[in-house]
Design brief:
This protein has about 425 residues and is α+β, with helices and mostly antiparallel strands. The chain is built from 15 helices and ten strands. The strands form two sheets. It has a five-stranded antiparallel β-sheet. A hairpin with a 4-residue loop joins β1 and β2. The longest helix has about 40 residues. It is elongated and about 95 Å long. The termini are far apart.
């Protein structure tokens, strides 16, 4: 596609006797010919970096470029490097905007013939870009299918998908790690279109920060993933880079969701794996980390699987297995909202390793009140908190209940009157 656009600008540049350039819709430079006149800082930046500043994009948008259907003019704006007038023509296919063709004022006045040739160049560029977009979408669709196989349950399909991704140049070979992003949702309910789109856009924006063939993105019904590849990197370097990228991913997701919903999204990071065909293991870890962070609400918004502690093990259990593993007396305590205060007291006491003074301080109560509540917990559950095995059962039970979608604890039920 780029080579076709280059031939097009070379041909029309020769016919016009002046410089001509083609940008995509974000003003990223796609093709240009030799300049016959002076250029300004904005054109130099476009050529050197294949992109322009946000201020320049805003200036062009203010001139109605995105809505234009015919030739339009962008006046100079020296503050952002535009000291020469531009004449642009939108590139459209079936009214869909695909980019712009530009002439620069330093090459001299733009006559009627130049305008007609500009329109002709835009029409031909539209065909080239449309064909290119169709081909790119087919390629991306096939790559997404391969990524689905790569993280799926079938080992043979995973091996085939990994080999195909490399052979077809969608990805390079090397160590991988996976990031998974999730947003707040109702249990067992698919995401609405707005949040699903926010996930897709955030992950794609993050993927674009990686070198070509080093990132693969996929959006699922309740989450999105970014598979990253780090050829030649050691595990500690991969972990550091993945952690930094996860922070960026969450920032992008917050931007897409709106800053008012910053607390409603989480990113999990899986551990590195040596080969692409083993990416499913990193994916499972990243998804578990993101879901545990979402459910518990206590681990932060960006969580690596290595930070899960006991949740890494408990997160592998099904809801039925979680419920079966909880002491019957605790299940009864959890199921009654009236006892929420007792549950919270028990949790804080055990999280403070049985230190009554620190627990009472954290709860803002007197130690005698703490002891009364713990005694009441023992009466209701049949557990003895001065017995090691019972205390372990109580602490594990609390952690299991946090992960269970239908066993309310102090961290996952609304306030009630106790």
């Amino acid at each position: 596609m780029v080579s076709e656009l280059q031939r097009l600008v070379d041909a029309f540049g020769a016919r016009l006797g002046r410089s001509i350039a083609i940008d995509d819709t974000r003003l990223k430079l796609l093709a240009y010919n030799a300049h016959t006149g002076d250029v300004d800082d904005a054109r130099i930046e476009s050529i050197m970096h294949r992109g322009v500043s946000a201020a320049l994009v805003a200036h062009v948008c203010e001139q109605g470029a995105a809505q234009a259907s015919d030739v339009f003019t962008v006046p100079p704006c020296p503050q952002i490097g535009i000291t020469m007038e531009r004449v642009g023509m939108p590139i459209r296919y079936d009214d869909a905007l695909l980019g712009y063709v530009w002439l620069i004022g330093s090459d001299g006045p733009i006559c009627d013939r130049a305008v007609e040739l500009l329109r002709e160049a835009a029409a031909q560029a539209a065909l080239v870009l449309h064909r290119g977009h169709l081909g790119l979408e087919v390629t991306r669709s096939h790559a997404r299918e391969l990524v689905r196989d790569l993280i799926g349950p079938d080992q043979a399909l995973r091996a085939e998908a990994g080999a195909a991704l490399v052979e077809e140049e969608h990805a390079v070979a090397g160590p991988v790690t996976v990031l998974v992003a999730v947003v707040a949702r109702e249990e067992d309910e698919p995401l609405d279109e707005e949040r699903r789109l926010a996930l897709e856009l955030a992950v794609d924006r993050c993927r674009r920060r990686l070198p070509p063939s080093r990132g693969l993105a996929l959006t699922r019904p309740d989450h999105a993933l970014l598979l990253t590849i780090w050829p030649g990197a050691r595990s500690h370097v991969i972990e550091r880079n993945a952690a930094e990228l996860a922070e960026v991913l969450r920032e992008k997701l917050v931007e897409e969701l709106g800053l008012g919903r910053a607390a409603l999204c989480w990113v999990g990071v899986g551990g590195p794996r040596p080969r692409l065909a083993e990416a499913h293991s990193s994916y499972e870890e990243a998804r578990r980390a993101a879901e545990v962070a979402r459910i518990t609400g206590t681990l932060g918004h960006v969580v690596a699987h290595t930070q899960l502690g006991v949740y890494a093990l408990l997160g592998k259990l099904t809801p039925d297995e979680l419920a079966e593993g909880i002491h019957p007396g605790l299940r009864s305590l959890f199921s009654n909202p009236v006892h929420r205060e007792l549950v919270e007291t028990l949790r804080v006491y055990l999280d403070h390793a049985g230190d009554a003074q620190h627990a009472a301080t954290a709860l803002h109560i007197h130690r005698s009140t703490l002891y009364k509540r713990l005694h009441r917990v023992e009466q209701l559950t049949g557990l003895r908190l001065d017995v090691g095995d019972d205390r372990l059962a109580a602490h594990l039970g609390l952690k299991m209940a946090e992960l269970h979608p239908r066993l309310p604890t102090s961290t996952n039920v609304p306030d009630v009157v106790c």
